[in-house]
Amino acid sequence: MPGLGTTYGRGGATAPPNDLLNSDAILIMGSNMAENHPVGFQWVMEAKERGAKVLHVDPRFSRTSAVANIWVPFRAGSDILFLGGLIRYVLENELFFREYVVHYTNASVIIPEDFKDTEDLEGIFSGWDANKKTYDETTWLYEGVEPVRGASTAQGAAEGSHGGHAEHGLHAMPDLCNYQRDLTLQHPRCVFQLLRKHFARYTPEMVEQYCGVRKSVFLNAAKTFCTASGPEKTGAICYALGWTQHSNGVQMIRCAAILQLLLGNMGRPGGGILALRGHASIQGSTDVPTLYDILPGYLSMPKFGDESKTLDAYVEKYGSRTGWWYNIDKYIVSLLKAYYGESAQPENDFGFHWLPRVTGDHSHQAYWLDMLDGKMDGWFVMGQNPAVAGPNSGMERRGLAHLKWLVVREMVETETASFWYESPEVKRGELRTEDIQTEVFLLPAAGHAEKDGTFTNTQRLLQWREKAVEPPGDCRSENWFSYHLGVLLREKARRDPQPRHAGLLALKWDYSIEGEHREPVAEEVLQEMNGYKVADGELVTGFTALKADGSTACGCWIYSGVFPKPGENRANQRAAKGFYGHGWGFAWPSDRRIIYNRASARPDGQPWSERKKLVWWDAESKKWTGLDVPDFTVTKAPDYVPPPGAVGDDGLAGDKPFLLHCDGFGWIWVPVGLTDGPLPTHYEPLESPVRNPIYPKQQTNPMALSKARPGNEYAASPDAHFPFVMMTYRLTEHHTAGGMSRTLSHLAELQPEMFCEISPELAKNLSITPGEWVTIVTARGAIEAHALVTPRIKMLTVDGKPVHQVGVPFHWGYSGLVKGDIGNDLIAISEEPNVRIMETKGLLCNLIRGKRAANLDAIGQLRERKGQR
Fold first, then answer.
1. β-pairing, 586-587 with 461-465?
2. Does residue 162 register a pLDDT over 70?
3. Of 417, 406, 403, residue with least CA distance to 374
4. Residue 624 and residue 430: Cα distance in Å, rounded?
5. N or C: which end of the chain has fewer CB within 10 A?
6. pLDDT band at residue 28, thresholds of 50, 70 and 90?
């Protein structure tokens, strides 16, 4: 999400899937959209029928590829080489939308002379501290902008960002409005010229040599997509986990985001970037986060240190003088009032000191290493099955054996709940049930049809669902579990009055309950997210009504407006009007379906063209109007110029569409907010069959964390004993780790056994016949699978040598109606530096004929010899 968040201001998909009907070209990369997002893919199919060109860039030929106009197979992990090639193609062929780029992006902004690019420093940016393994991002600021330094910048820079509110390592957000520009884009140090220099070597020949894409195929794809630009045309980009699950995944998304700014495709009909969410409410689980370093609405979790000593210090760090984040004090105070009610007063910083502090890496990946090191006593698992879904799953299952207690809330007994008696490690004698001291509590959970609530989907759309049936037996909803657990913990704290319990006891824990099982009323929770006036409980109509004086409470400011008055649950509305469906559900923020839509109009406020009009300035009524809710202050005229000293939104001119950025620009260059550089650059995966062709001295992302240790080891790059490129992926018929699909007979029958996809050439080289058992080996583990020999996986020529790729689905485990080895046993625990996600694409493996048990000696020899080129 920081890839979109730092470029545009928010981390969510920028348009709804049905807007693809307005696209002239659709680039799908990092996603098998037809199989993993089939409901949304209907709009791709209809767009194609209307004349849109569909491109699918993916190592595997899939159902998405089958209906695309162009399929481009390439080497997994070389995405930035390919995308950088597209950026270079746009620049060298003068295909960028000049008026859009000059007015709406920071392409014209000048960067200081002392900045050094990766082209100057052989793979690293200026500001690199080799001892601390981190960057000083102040070297990436605009010319004329002074950093506001505090006691420490390293802690903030190390933690990353997940959404619109970019994390940064500075004491306070610098005043980026003190920039200098060259509107001709000719200054050698303007962002546009630095971008041109940065990607100059990403030539079609480089793409051919190291992505394995023929030059003619690349040029055809580049021409097809990059000409969907200008006043009359737009193109859209769709991606999913195929981009995010890399050690430089955020910067892959940044490449796409830069490309869309250059083409003028952001905020316009048929443009944008769809961050495809693979579950009904993945977007919702970051909006109201299940992540350790953000609070609801993408407010940063305070970090331990000076920034968290007072509420004022926090606001100074994360607020900005201009742009929408000037209002951060209203949002954090209203959140604290929602949390702590009457206990949150100005005299105690509204209870700010009760919020937890981030003291280090508390991500999913780090949890497991802490478990293995005996640093964690207990763990709640709700809606996850990490014993199958987690990277290096075998290591994670061993970690579970180090806990004192484990609570699993599920609809079935998953592998995570049963690890202690039926995991592969127990079956092989590596763990003994009698020795495992972990006490496991399996609590039955209600399904989505057995509870009220909302889903927030790919297009940021909240949709209410009503309970269809009562959950059976002891099954309960998440609301029920969380609420009643809170009641029990608070009662326990009252009997043990210690200072550390003050925050727990201060919580406003007064939700109404209903029914035989005393279920919290879900609509009340949504009303709390919407926000209300503290004095009388009156619901607010939107986030512009929130105050910093403690007079309002709001559980998630970006959701404000979803429940503006009693009886008006907008998430439950089903009266769609117009093309974008206003009146069906509620899209944050403020029911804007296409965000940044001020950019759909020219600087003077009129549409770029009749064909691509969306919102425009009505001079007679003196307000913005159109086909969508304007993502802009409705009464701000296009020619508005901020007066001296103007702050907040008043500090942005009328031609600045990206209102969450303090300069109002779309950021081709990211001056603050990312840990690994202001521009994307190509680094190889943590394991690779080739050396980095762009920067031989810097093989991998210098900020990526391999977490290498015994049991989480890596092959060399390249490695003669692990010569093949491996990638994991999902199938239509199964749901992630399989807990909801391998237990259903009809889905289990459709995909009954674990397999891997290999090319006919590789099968011939290894004398593998279709359907026979093979063992897949990495430096971490070995699994067995049936060989699916198929031309859907192409042998590529990379750097003059054949490169074979192996596709591995990850849905099987040791529970359910159908069972199989676990694909994620092969993956390493690693962390991309901005979001801490693991790398599951582009790693190295080997294949051996036969089942795992028959190949134990060969497996051991391979793992002992790893690291030999």
1. antiparallel
2. no
3. 403
4. 66
5. C
6. very high
